[in-house]
């Protein structure tokens, strides 16, 4: 049983390998050491408060407690008050039916509540220390993997259903003790605690990096892992260290083959090991002159307490113990037996030291630290009552890990208080989450009835817009695009595309069946977007000139299509008056003017290039055309980008005075400008609207498009922070900055592939420094805001496709939508939610979405080609 340092180091290395094996998803199933995630990530911060009931089952005593946690500034000692009562657990319950065991637990709890005058009428929060291996999917739920120690009840279901308690947290005794040590000792960084329970069982838990815990989602921060190290060796890893006595102890136990490490070190078995060694020595005639008493042959006759006593006061106690066993020992017998006892308990502390060394080494490597300073919380009867045990343990650990400064703290109030602390933390986090969830995020969750209403309002908006433009918020602008391309288009065209933030110039060459595209992107500085109209169009002309120069076409007069992604009242394909700027544009002296003329004049002013602008089109129309080139069924164009809009092919009989079918640019972003969406508009939307350059306008667009979603998110975050629910209540300058959340960040934050750590680093790049918990909330806010946007667009789309279906008197409509825009293309969930909503809300239509490959620029060129064809004809 003697182990030298080489052996201990070898053991420690095997232990480390086991830890790794248990953490990894691939090898966990086969691992002996289970490394159970506990879902305890947060330690008390001193702001928790409340009164909790607590149950502590699985240690040497079953206890019911009442724990009061008082709020304090910082973490100070003495803020937890406890009253407890110990209840016996009759032996027959340990091995009887589990329901009986838990009935007993619940009766004891009731008795305690009665005694303390705690009403059964109310529901009380309860913390449950349950010191057995449990597979936990949540803090308040766990499946018992197997009983250990002397428990072996049959059929175990523990349910959280009770009228008078609500189980907030279920924790292993190791975890609870770690919390207690961290709470009590303000110098002890709780996360650095490793706890070993060496009472009836043995176990350890420690804070592991989440990124290493395969079984739990998330990469950020740490979570406490309950190692269940007692089962180390169950797969044979300790074979060469086992003695015949260990094998005998195991064979006679209630769980042979299981908890091998535990059986070598823990209190339940130390006495038994000593008895077996002494028995063998007596049988060999080396003790008591070969006499063996019946008592010595009886299992359990030497207890851990006896081993402790022999440790404490050597020979005197040893003699008493042996006398009790009717052995009549000589002085030499006593010396020898005491020696046996010392060796057995020495081996125990050696083994524990090797295990602990493995964990500490792991922590040190995890944190990339040369020297580790760490506090280890300890509890358990062996540690507490064997006078020599702690000293030996400390000494060996320090010898095995000379580079670590290890401090051991004895847990004073045990694991029950820790469970209450875990519950208190859980309660704090739950109430925080509830506040965030209920009060704020629910505002963004739309019920199907509400979406049906949006659909109906969109529909009446479309109808009203067709009847008369002036009284409708949805303008339903005729585009003078009647035909979709037929594939006979040929030649070279220029396309100019003024979209959300960029201006693109393109050269499109249509050949038989194919087209080739060359383009260049120009950004539009804010001062030009919001300067004068003349400056803006001069800038566009300058870009065109640069592009033609770049393409070597400065001296050719090419036919051009002009995609102008703003509402224009058109009277022909090549003229259109700007109705109102939208999105980020606000150049003066443009609204009410013909934008084609403005561009022509700007070009004329330069006097170095020439263009034949044959078509003016909206980006939605361009997108539709571009997609229709590939698929004739495409009769809708949609943009979900900086702004949002849709166009579709309408029957001309529905458009005043015009015959045939024409594409209508709905400008649906204006829905709600008459107040018809007020019931779903939140205070955050209102705030965004008030801070925009076109107050009261484009209310639908402001709830659904890329330019605004980030602002809505920012407003929510501001509010949550002001209410102390986020960023520790600190409203930073960054958070006050309009526009920090661009669509691309929203898309990144919501990406499923991104771990929390990356979300946090995106937020940090934006200058928002928060905890991992903050990142979760931010992500959540982004999710609800963008989901609502997609649903609203889906409801709008449903209105459009149903209208087209009715226009054509069909029961069923098969139609394709050409879509473009950064929100649609880059956001991880938007398109999915959009499609799903349309499916549900327009059950009589089969709507296929086709992302436009080449933007609306190609569409503009096509329209130019079609327009020229007509003109030439
Ligand atoms: C592009 C079109 O593909 O999509 C633009 O060519 C349009 O005209 C744009 O405005 C919409 O996307 P975003 O996200 O840039 O507004
Ligand atoms: C046993 C249990 C474990 C507990 C330990 C100490 O090993 O399996 O969950 O922590 O005993 O009580
Ligand atoms: C805005 C414009 C509209 C455009 C849309 C998408 O809503 O008013 O014309 O189609 O943004 O870019």
Question: Can you walk me through this structure?
Answer:
- There is one protein chain.
- This protein is an alpha/beta fold.
- About 45% of the residues lie in helices and about 20% in strands.
- The protein contains 29 helices and 26 strands.
- The strands form 6 sheets. Strands 1-11-10-9-12-13 form a 6-stranded mixed beta sheet, with helices on both faces. A 6-stranded mixed beta sheet has the order 14-24-23-22-25-26, with helices on both faces.
- A hairpin with a 4-residue loop joins β2 and β3 (about 60-70).
- α8 (about 265-285) runs antiparallel to α12 (about 330-365), α12 (about 330-365) crosses α14 and α25 (about 755-765) crosses α26.
- The longest helix is centred in the middle third of the chain and has 36 residues, at about 330-365.
- Residues about 75 and about 185-190 have low confidence and may be disordered.
- Bound molecules: 6-O-phosphono-beta-D-glucopyranose and alpha-D-glucopyranose (2 copies).
- One alpha-D-glucopyranose (GLC) binds next to α20 and β23.
- It catalyses: D-glucose + ATP = D-glucose 6-phosphate + ADP + H(+); a D-hexose + ATP = a D-hexose 6-phosphate + ADP + H(+); D-fructose + ATP = D-fructose 6-phosphate + ADP + H(+).
- Its EC number is 2.7.1.1.
- Pathway: Carbohydrate degradation; glycolysis; D-glyceraldehyde 3-phosphate and glycerone phosphate from D-glucose: step 1/4; Carbohydrate metabolism; hexose metabolism.
- Keywords: ATP-binding, Glycolysis, Kinase, Nucleotide-binding, Transferase.
- It comes from Nothobranchius furzeri.
């Amino acid at each position: 049983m003697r182990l030298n340092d080489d052996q201990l180091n070898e053991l420690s290395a095997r232990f480390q390998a086991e830890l790794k094996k248990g953490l990894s998803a691939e090898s966990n199933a086969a691992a002996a050491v289970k490394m159970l995630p506990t879902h305890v990530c947060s330690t008390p911060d001193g702001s928790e408060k409340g009164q909790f009931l607590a149950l502590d089952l699985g240690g040497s005593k079953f206890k019911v407690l009442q724990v009061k946690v008082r709020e304090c500034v910082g973490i100070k000692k003495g803020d937890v008050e406890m009253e407890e009562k110990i209840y016996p657990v009759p032996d027959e319950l340990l091995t009887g039916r589990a329901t009986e065991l838990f009935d007993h637990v619940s009766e004891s709890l009731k008795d305690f509540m009665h005694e303390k005058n705690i009403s059964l009428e109310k529901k009380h929060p309860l913390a449950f220390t349950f010191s057995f291996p449990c597979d936990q999917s949540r803090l308040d739920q766990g499946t018992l993997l197997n009983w250990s120690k002397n428990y072996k009840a049959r059929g175990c279901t523990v349910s959280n259903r009770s009228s008078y308690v609500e189980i907030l947290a279920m924790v292993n005794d190791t975890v609870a003790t770690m919390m207690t040590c961290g709470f009590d000792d303000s110098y002890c960084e709780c996360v650095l605690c490793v706890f070993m329970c060496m009472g009836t069982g043995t176990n350890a838990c420690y804070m592991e990096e989440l990124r290493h815990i395969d079984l739990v989602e998330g990469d950020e921060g740490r979570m406490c892992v309950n190692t269940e190290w007692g089962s180390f060796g169950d797969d044979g890893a300790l074979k060469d260290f086992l003695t015949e006595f260990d094998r005998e102890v195991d064979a006679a136990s209630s769980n042979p083959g299981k908890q091998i490490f535990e059986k070598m070190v823990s209190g339940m078995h130390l006495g038994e090991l000593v008895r077996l060694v002494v028995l063998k020595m007596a049988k060999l005639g080396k003790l008591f002159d070969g006499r063996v008493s019946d008592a010595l042959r009886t299992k359990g006759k030497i207890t851990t307490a006896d081993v402790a006593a022999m440790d404490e006061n050597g020979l005197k106690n040893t003699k008493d113990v042996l006398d009790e066993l009717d052995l009549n020992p000589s002085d030499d017998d006593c010396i020898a037996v005491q020696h046996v006892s010392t060796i057995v308990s020495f081996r125990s502390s050696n083994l524990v030291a090797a295990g602990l060394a493995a964990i500490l080494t792991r922590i040190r490597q995890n944190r990339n630290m040369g020297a580790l300073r760490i506090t280890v919380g300890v509890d358990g009867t062996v540690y507490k009552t064997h006078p020599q045990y702690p000293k030996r343990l400390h000494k060996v650990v320090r010898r095995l890990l000379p580079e670590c400064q290890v401090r051991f703290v004895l847990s004073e109030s045990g694991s029950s208080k820790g469970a209450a602390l875990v519950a208190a933390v859980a309660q704090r986090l739950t109430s925080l989450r509830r506040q965030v969830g209920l009060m704020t995020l629910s505002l963004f969750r739309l019920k199907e009835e509400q979406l049906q209403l949006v659909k109906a309002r969109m529909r009446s908006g479309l109808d009203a817009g067709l009847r008369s433009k002036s009284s409708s918020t949805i303008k339903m602008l005729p585009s003078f695009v009647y035909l979709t391309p037929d594939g006979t288009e040929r030649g070279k065209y220029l396309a100019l595309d003024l979209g959300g933030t960029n201006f693109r110039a393109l050269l499109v060459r249509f050949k038989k069946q194919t087209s080739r595209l060359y383009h260049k992107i120009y950004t539009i500085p804010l001062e030009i977007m919001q300067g004068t109209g003349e400056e803006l169009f001069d800038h566009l002309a300058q870009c065109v000139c640069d592009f033609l120069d770049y393409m070597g076409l400065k001296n050719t007069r090419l036919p051009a299509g002009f995609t102008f992604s703003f509402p224009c009242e058109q009277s022909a394909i090549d003229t259109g008056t700007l109705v109102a700027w939208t999105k980020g544009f606000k150049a003066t002296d443009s609204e009410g003017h013909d934008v084609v003329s403005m561009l022509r004049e700007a070009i004329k002013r330069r006097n170095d290039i020439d263009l034949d602008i044959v078509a003016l089109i909206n980006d939605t129309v361009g997108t539709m055309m571009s997609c229709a080139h590939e698929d004739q069924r495409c009769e809708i164009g949609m943009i979900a980008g900086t702004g949002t809009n849709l166009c579709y092919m309408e029957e001309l009989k529905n458009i005043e005075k015009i015959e045939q079918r024409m594409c209508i640019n709905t400008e649906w972003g204006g829905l709600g400008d008459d107040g018809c969406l007020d019931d779903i508009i939140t205070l955050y939307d209102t705030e965004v609207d008030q801070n925009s350059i076109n107050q009261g306008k484009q209310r639908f667009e402001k709830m659904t498009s890329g330019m605004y979603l980030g602002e809505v998110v920012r407003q929510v975050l501001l509010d949550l922070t002001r209410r102390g629910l986020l960023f520790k209540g600190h409203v930073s300058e960054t958070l006050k900055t309009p526009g920090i959340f661009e669509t691309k960040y929203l898309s990144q934050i919501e990406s499923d592939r991104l771990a929390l750590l990356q979300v946090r680093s995106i937020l940090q790049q934006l200058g928002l420094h928060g905890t991992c918990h903050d990142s979760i909330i931010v992500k959540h806010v982004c999710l609800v805001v963008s989901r609502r946007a997609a649903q609203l667009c889906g409801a709008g789309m449903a209105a459009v496709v149903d209208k087209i279906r009715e226009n054509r008197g069909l029961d069923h409509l098969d139609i394709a939508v050409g879509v473009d825009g950064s929100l649609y293309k880059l956001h991880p969930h938007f398109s999915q939610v959009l499609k799903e909503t349309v499916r549900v809300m327009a059950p009589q239509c089969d709507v296929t979405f086709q992302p436009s490959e080449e933007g609306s620029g190609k569409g503009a060129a096509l329209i130019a080609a079609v327009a020229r064809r007509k003109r030439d004809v």
